[in-house]
Amino acid sequence: MSTMSVHGMWSSRLAFILAATGSAVGLGNIWRFPYTAGEYGGGAFVLIYLICVAGIGIPIMMAEIMLGRRGRQSPVNTMRSLAGQEGAHGAWQLLGWMGIVSGLLILSFYSVIAGWTMAYVTRAFGGQFGGIDAAGAESMFGALVSDPERLLAWHTIFMVMTVMVVARGVASGLEKAVRFLMPALFVLLIGMVLYAAQAGDFQAALAYLFKPDFAKLGEHAGEAILSAMGQAFFSLSLGMGAIMIYGSYLNSSASIGRNAVIIASLDTTVALLAGLAIFPIVFANGLSPDSGPGLIFQTLPIAFGQMAGGQLVGVVFFVLLVFAAWTSAISLLEPVVTWLVENRGFSRVRATVIAGSAVWLLGIACLLSLNVWAGFTIFGKGILDLFDYVTANVLLPLGGVLIAVFAGWIMRRASSRDELAMGETSIAYGAWRLLIRYVAPICVVIVLLNAIGLI
Ligand code: PFF
């Protein structure tokens, strides 16, 4: 077993935490979490989400880091070689393949949304939020998404930015960017929560987010649970090999359990802060929490338009959000690029350009689904919404189940204990094993079967 990855290694344990947090914290926390929580009525969704993060997300994150570090290759080859070592069938590499497909699909719409964020940097910069009201913010957003050329331009710029970093190797540029970005994003979000607390309806937001009202879920309970679980996978970057490939660059002596808890806690904190920054403004301005994917783009401009220094704060906020999306996008592309390098013998640059171009093309279908192709739907959803829904709610949880089964049932006890560096009698190891063997896979399978109406 190699102790180094051919694709590079993190320079320190902190570098890994920063990079993995950079992958986890992104549009999922600030764009997707608030609007999905809003669609399912708030508190009950948030509670289920938190339970999923703790009971399913953290153990699976540990498993992913562990598998990655033990295999030290692209997820496809890691799964193949670990299956060989554990005497299991080579078909386990399909898990890596599923991850590649999920990564390409996610990045194709993720880049379009990141494009919205960049477009909003220029609107903030130009002072266009000054004195804007709910109707104005709605029409500004509507004008953007109905303009395919503009969306294409931003999507293209974002993909070029992503390809540029991945082509150079994630370990070099990424560390520096995240070291500065994460603290900055944190501070700004706390500032925005403080602003929302005094300018918005903070009480209403607190009650909305933290007073679970299960009655609100009504007949949609199954779907709400599925979406909360999907959101946990999406937000923590689990189930597709992103955290696995980052684990493959991690030093053998780092504690996997501790790292996973830190990364998941940071990620969850950012999501909750985003909720606390957005919902007070939603309620104070009579907006509807269930207005869908445009939610942050229709609420935050109102706050920036009213607050002192809002022009600057608005620019900084959207710039930071672009960075957060960027560090996540990088991790979405990395698994397929490492596979192309290992198996096709491509240079990293060539591999990245090819994978990035495929995503760019898929992204065009996503952005057209918002306007010219708006009439074309599958299962009642346009392409962008469909990719979003299917990846987060089906592919990532399925990937997660397979990771849990492999780590808990296929991998020998001695192998996982050794890799997690936990003693035979350690309570933490016992708890992890219980969660990864029974709780995580069974819960995910029940939720998935329930969603398709089988139970
Ligand atoms: N976790 C990222 C976010 O919350 O924005 C998105 C993401 C990155 C999902 C990497 C999945 C992934 F593998």
Task: Describe this protein with a few key phrases.
455 residues, mainly alpha, Amino acid/polyamine transporter I, 19 helices, 78% helix, globular, binds 4-fluoro-L-phenylalanine
Task: Give a short synopsis of this structure.
The protein is built from 19 helices and no strands. The protein is an all-alpha fold.
Task: Tell me what the structure shows.
The chain is an all-alpha fold and 455 residues long. The chain has a single domain (13-363, 394-451), classed as Up-down Bundle (Amino acid/polyamine transporter I), CATH 1.20.1740. 78% of the residues lie in helices and 0% in strands. The protein contains 19 helices and no strands. The chain has helices at 13-24, 27-39, 43-71, 75-85, 93-125, 134-145, 148-168, 170-199, 202-210, 214-217, 221-235, 242-247, 256-284, 295-306, 310-344, 348-368, 383-410, 413-420, 427-451. Helix 6 (134-145) packs across helix 14. The protein starts with 12 loop residues before the first helix and ends with a helix. The mean pLDDT is 94. 4-fluoro-L-phenylalanine binds at residues 23-24, 26-29, 106, 234-235, 237, 240, 242, 328, 331-332. 4-fluoro-L-phenylalanine (PFF) is lined by residues 23-24, 26-29, 106, 234-235, 237, 240, 242, 328, 331-332.
